[in-house]
Write a structure and sequence with these properties.
Blueprint: E1 7-9, E2 13-15, E3 21-25, H1 29-42, H2 46-49, E4 50-54, H3 56-70, E5 82-85, H4 86-93, E6 99-102, E7 109-111, H5 117-123, E8 127-130, H6 139-142, E9 145-151, H7 159-171, E10 172-174, H8 180-185
Parallel strand pairs: 3-4, 3-8, 4-5, 6-8, 6-9, 7-9
Antiparallel strand pairs: 1-2, 2-10
């Protein structure tokens, strides 16, 4: 590990230091487990920065499932940041700078395979919001959005696939091959 939280890796990439706040709208238990496993797999504090956003009638159940997840991996700390209703998440987002909504939007930066503006928007985020599969990001959460990123796709993507793509783009910071100096400056 190098100063600044970036660990140089072969192949022209460095691991990013940490993730921003991850506000993910979940309405199915199966999606909850997929999101929790993605955060566990990517590490670097992702689970602790994860806020599961849900509807009031699901909040208690998803909180119970998220707590149970924590104990499935003895010796590892897998505490989820929070499970909140839309209103609670909206209150948590107030005061956060650089909120990026991952959603279709006329002014969105398009996340493509190559490094581009959308990658920089994601990496500069104080918080990311991914919406419900059924109806997207709730209006109260969009109030503070300062930027939008959409994933280039010919079809609609489910929540877990979208989250995986976004986390992958956030986790790897391109640098010149063999350039530890470039990795340290990222």
């Amino acid at each position: 590990r190098r100063p600044g939280g970036v660990a140089p890796v072969r192949g022209g990439h460095a691991r990013a230091a940490s993730f921003p706040g991850l506000f993910v709208c979940v309405e199915k238990v199966s999606n909850l487990y997929r999101i929790l496993m993605l955060c566990r797999d990517y590490g670097r504090g992702a689970l602790g920065r994860l806020v599961i956003v849900t509807r009031p009638h699901l909040a208690a159940r998803l909180a119970k499932e998220a707590t149970a997840f924590r104990y499935k991996f003895p010796g590892e700390d897998h505490a989820v940041g929070a499970v909140l209703t839309i209103e609670g998440a909206s209150a948590r987002l107030s005061g956060v700078e650089r909120i990026v909504a991952v959603d279709l939007h006329a002014g969105a930066s398009v996340l493509a395979a190559r490094e581009g503006p959308a990658h920089r928007v994601l990496r500069g985020a104080g918080a990311l919001i991914l919406g419900f599969e059924s109806d997207g990001i709730p209006a109260p959460l969009l109030d503070g959005a300062t930027a939008y990123v959409q994933i280039r796709s010919r079809t609609s993507l489910n929540l877990a696939a979208s989250m995986s793509i976004v986390m992958h783009c956030m986790a790897w910071v391109p640098v010149a091959a063999g350039s530890e100096e470039a990795a340290l400056q990222t």
